[in-house]
Specification:
With 159 residues, the protein is an alpha+beta fold. It is built from four helices and eight strands. It has one domain: Pnp Oxidase, Chain A, CATH 2.30.110.10. The two termini are 30 Å apart.
């Protein structure tokens, strides 16, 4: 079994293709990991909605958070994971909210009218499975490499 880093493009494609992820925050000095419905807007922002005065809203005002999305095989022997670290901020009344509003539902019901945007700062991903990933080997990506958004993956040197 091998663990292979995903490229920045692969990470963004996986974020765009899914709609449920987990946000990690600190609440009352303790870690909390909460599943949320989300949408990726452009290549730099993840948006989700929450209860305006709830724990998640309090924990996401101008603070660093982690966000994760993954997919694993039932037997646990293959899959992938994408991790985002970024700054979360509340957004209201902007064109971003209106654009995303129809795509981000709340699985827990009404009253989730506080939109939160996570600006992607670090983006990492990895695939686990049988054999090496052609994409990772082809681009010469070192294990554990982190991409800052807008930064292209390293290119192989000729020679």
């Amino acid at each position: 079994m091998s663990v292979t880093p995903l490229t920045q493009s692969e990470c963004l494609a996986k974020l765009a293709a899914h709609s449920v992820g987990r946000i990690a925050v600190t609440s009352r000095a303790l870690p909390a990991i909460i599943p949320v419905n989300y949408a990726l807007t452009g290549r730099t922002t993840i948006v989700f909605r929450t209860e305006p005065h709830g724990m998640l809203a309090r924990a996401t005002e101008n603070t660093v958070v982690a966000f994760e999305v993954d997919e694993l095989a039932r037997d646990g022997r293959s899959g992938w994971s994408v991790l985002v670290v970024g700054v979360a901020n509340h957004i209201q009344g902007s064109s971003l909210v209106r654009a995303v509003e129809t795509r981000v539902s709340s699985a827990v019901g009404e009253g989730r009218d506080q939109f939160v945007a996570i600006t992607i700062g670090q983006l990492t991903g990895r695939a686990v499975g049988e054999g090496p990933s052609a994409a990772g080997e082809k681009e010469g990506i070192p294990r554990g490499h982190r991409y800052a958004v807008g930064v292209s993956p390293p290119k192989r040197r000729a020679g």
